[in-house]
Amino acid sequence: MRRPQRWTVLLFRVAAVLQALLVLLQAILAGRFLSGGYGALSAHSANAMFTILVGMVTVVAALLVWRPGGGPARQVGPAAVMVVLEIVQMVLGFGRMLAVHVPLGTALLVGAVTLVRLAFQAGAAKDPADARDERVPEAV
Predict the structure, then answer these.
(1) Fewest CB atoms within 10 A around its CB: which of 27, 71, 100, 136?
(2) How many angstroms separate the CA atoms of 23 and 110, rounded?
(3) Residue 70 zone, left/alpha/beta (φ > 0; ψ -120 to 50; rest)
(4) pLDDT exceeds cutoff 50 at 133
């Protein structure tokens, strides 16, 4: 597999990092609300919608790394799963189902960090499996 086009990788990296920062901000805003900053709840709600929007951009960016970028497709699935889980998270939050909302928020943070890792692997030189096939002969 050839290296993906640079602009697609850069777009995916920026989108994934922004998504991770927004997910982290969600935890901060929730903590502020629980500490008595009741205005943080409306910011938490608005940020949830923005996080989903950025998640959708991340899916599009992941698709662009794959097609037409020429890179691997392995980041498309996790990016799509993140958006679906973010939508479920928002529905749970609006429904005040905190017994699931809080642990899912933790899982989303782990998923966001994983997506950032995938974003920075997307532009790697080659797949490790490909590297094994191109061994350099030893000089005798």
Answers:
(1) 136
(2) 10
(3) left
(4) no
Q: Which residue has the tokens 């938490």?
A: 44
Residue 126 confidence class, pLDDT cut points 50, 70, 90:
low
Kindly report, residue by residue over 63-81, the tens digit of the pLDDT: 999 988 788 889 999 999 9
Handedness of CA 73, 78, 81, 82 (dihedral sign): negative
Q: Which amino acid is at 64?
A: L
DSSP string, 61-86: HHHHHHTTT---STTHHHHHHHHHHH
103: preceding bond cis by omega (within 30 degrees) = no
Read off the pLDDT band of 93 (50, 70, 90): very high
**CA 120 to CA 10: how far, in whole Å?**
9
